[in-house]
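User: I'll paste a sequence; please echo it back and then give the predicted structure.

Assistant: Echoing your sequence first, then the prediction.
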Amino acid sequence: MNTSELALQERIKELTCLYEVSSIIVNANSKEMIDTIRAIAVCLKKGFYAPNTTEILIETPKDRYKTGSIASEKQICSEIIVFNKVQGKIVASLLEKEASFLKEEQPLLDNVALKLGNLLERIEIQNNERSLKRQMEHADRLGILGEITAGIAHELNTPLANILGFAELLKEETELSKHSAVDLDKIISNAIFSREVVKKLLFFACEMPKELKELNVVPIVKESVALLDATFKKAEVRYTLHLEEELLMLRADKVQITQVVFNLVMNAIYFSPKKSTVHIDVFQSNKHLVLKVADEGIGLSEEALEKVFQPFFSTKPTGDGAGLGLSVVHGIVAGHKGTIVAENRKNKGAVFTVKLPKLD
């Protein structure tokens, strides 16, 4: 076989390789990326002049696959670029010391790396779109739930006020037996409890009045954490408090912001195992003041991540909570035109991130 025929044969192999790689990428599934990478590596190996002595390594941020032992002496490499950043590499290695790569094989490697980079970009865009869609659907559900909740709370306010008012009048103006007086006290205490539940529902629906003032949130956070010092000790849980600066200004309602810090830290303590640490961080970005509260517990299930801010949803055992604490936090944060996000940490536990708009 003459040189021209050999060159033509190699060119056909390269084009066949690129066609097969393109076919693999078109049909790629983001949930089975390791299979896709394996198929690309095997296909690329066959595209080289000496496939029996050539091994391929493909590395991406999440997956790694090699067709065999990779020699360090004779290699060619191409970087995988995703959104203008190096996110991996493809390495071709020759096991025979006397062998050498053809000059056409580096462009082949570059071409496959480019296609793989495009695939990773496409998958990241799809994942971001799915995440954004879920967030929008979640926000819509919370918005509708907030409107329904506000309506129910307003409807309950008047009869509760009447029950409480008439019960207190009855207690003051009527001579009651000891048993009746005890029953009346139960009516009053339960009416007060119900009124507090309604108040929390209105917080969730962002309809509680606010007294907005310019304030430094640092003393608020310090005081809230100090008040919980005994709770930390009782639960045998440690905490770290990191404040980026001693002056972090915000236009907010002091009582409501205190409630946000208090509820988030209390929630973190509850879900923290003994000897673990709750991490509290307060810092600022260009546009927001950020509060992060993280625990080292078991984290949140998929259902909990979706419903954690809905009223009456709780992962605590019955009797340990009404499921209104985090919905109140959500209502306060939304009322201050901020955002709150619940996520699982990479190692263990959950983290709640509150972002509130800074003073202009």
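The mean pLDDT is 81. The CA atoms of residues 14 and 108 lie 7 Å apart.
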